[in-house]
Write a structure and sequence with these properties.
Largest sheet: none
Number of domains: 3
CATH architecture of the largest domain: Up-down Bundle
Radius of gyration: 25 Å
Number of helices: 14
Strand content: under 5%
CATH topology of the largest domain: Receptor-associated Protein
Order of helices and strands: HHHHHHHHHHHHHH
CATH class of the largest domain: Mainly Alpha
Distance between the termini: 61 Å
């Protein structure tokens, strides 16, 4: 019975690995999907083309299941939609869970690996989104200064925006370029700027767009408005860097406290493997490990809350 189970698990693991490899084939988008990319910030890809195994599997998932990840995937420039990302999670989690069950012959190990593999893509997506947002905010102040100077020199708002999209690096240049393409396709400036705010998700950009929309309705000196927003964003970035410097010790302490038990356990496994055998083989040992992980997580979250000061 155990031999048949091993063969079944091996077959399932091979199938999931093959699906994972085939999932990275190039995507072929229709003309409607390409046009939709430049005319709306919502990736409503209802008709998924049959270009790869990942897209074929995603077509069987209801549209609403992965929709919550669509905006995050756009903000991180990952060429997937929500359903495809969900399929990717299922494939990775099933593969690692099957390998854990095949190698260790323990259901608990397979469940733990399945949960970890399920959470890893989400953690990467969150980290990539935060990094893109930080990079965009750091470039926004320079872009505003460039646009303000261009408007003072006689350029129009669209010309100044086009200059910023050509002079600034990614990701700001790509987002600015998408907004300009929307305007070229007939979308109003107000709507294109609102789509840009929704697509990026930056509070600083929302401040800029709100000020521009108000200026377009009531009038005023646009270059002066952009200069004031530039100074405000610069001050916020300076304060944020000062806070990061002052809270660096607390952040490092949190990482050390969270990682120290795992480092000690790993060292003990190499030095004396039998030392932790009782902790792993007995039910009370697993309960102690679970309690320790919960306590570590609570402590780490509390430390992060203390040192993470919003500006």
């Amino acid at each position: 019975m155990l031999g048949s189970l091993d063969k079944l698990i091996s077959l399932f693991a091979c199938i999931t690995v093959v699906i994972t490899i085939l999932s990275f084939q190039p995507r072929h988008k229709s003309i409607a999907q390409r046009l939709h990319k430049f005319t709306s910030w919502q990736p409503q890809l209802k008709e998924i083309p049959r270009g790869s195994s990942l897209e074929i599997l995603a077509s069987f998932i209801p549209d609403g299941w992965g929709k919550s990840r669509d905006i995050d995937l756009i903000r991180t420039n990952i060429p997937l939609n929500g359903n495809e990302f969900l399929v990717f999670q299922i494939v990775i989690a099933s593969t690692l869970g099957s390998l854990g069950l095949f190698l260790m012959h323990k259901i608990l190990v397979a469940v733990v690996l399945f949960i970890l593999a399920w959470l890893m893509p989400l953690a990467y997506l969150s980290h990539a989104k935060n990094q893109q947002l930080k990079l965009f905010n750091s470039q926004l102040a320079d872009a505003l200064n460039l646009m303000a100077n261009a408007i003072r020199s006689g350029f129009s708002f669209l010309q100044a925006m086009d200059m910023a999209s050509r002079e600034m690096p990614a990701p700001l240049s790509a987002d600015w370029g998408s907004a300009l393409k929307e305007m070229q396709l007939g979308v109003t400036i107000e709507r294109a700027l609102e789509n840009l705010t929704a697509r990026v998700g930056s509070a600083d950009l929302d401040l800029m767009v709100t000020a521009i929309l108000i200026q377009r309705q009531v009038g005023g000196n646009l270059s002066e408005v952009l200069s004031n927003i530039h100074n405000t964003i610069k001050d916020r970035l300076r304060i944020q860097k000062e806070i990061q410097t002052l809270t660096a010790q607390g952040r490092i302490s949190g990482y050390l406290i969270a990682g120290l038990p795992f480092f000690i356990a790993l060292m003990l496994l190499f030095i004396n493997p039998n030392y932790l055998e009782v902790l792993i083989s007995k039910p009370i040992g697993w309960e102690m490990i679970g309690g320790g992980l919960v306590s570590q997580t609570i402590g780490f979250v509390i430390i992060r809350r203390i040192v993470n000061i919003k500006v």
